[in-house]
Amino acid sequence: MIAVLGKLFPYTLLSLVTAVVMVTILFRLVNVPLRGSLLTIAMASLLLVLAYQGIGFLLVALTANLRMATSLAAFYTGPALAYMGISFPQMGMPAFGQFWGNLLPVTHYVRLLVGQGIRGDDWPAALPDLGRLTLFVLVPWLLAMIRIGPVLRSSRYWGRT
Fold this sequence. Notes:
mainly alpha, globular
């Protein structure tokens, strides 16, 4: 676990810097008024990064194959732009689109970002999306940690890419 966390830490920092730059561009340079809590947006950004890292780690742990995990990640996240509810409202989507959109952490992040940044929701309104993002962090990480031990100890997985 120390090796995994050590590998992911620089990417976590880089992703957080990217999120800060994104929010700065949106709310300072483009002059979209920030009506909600910047701290809530920052927390959600950290949770989003940790959620996707956990999902990636879980896919690697489940498949024990980096190429397969990458393919599954593309399949899982590919529809994100269509199903997260920005270009087309989620409430107008068929049930499958709503279901798939809710399986993506970015859906809940963008919902929170719009609520906090543009609509000016108070921070308690962000709690459901923060809770969902927290589940997206906890569940994949816990499942991956359970699975990765046997994978690393079994010689039949060694050398597979």
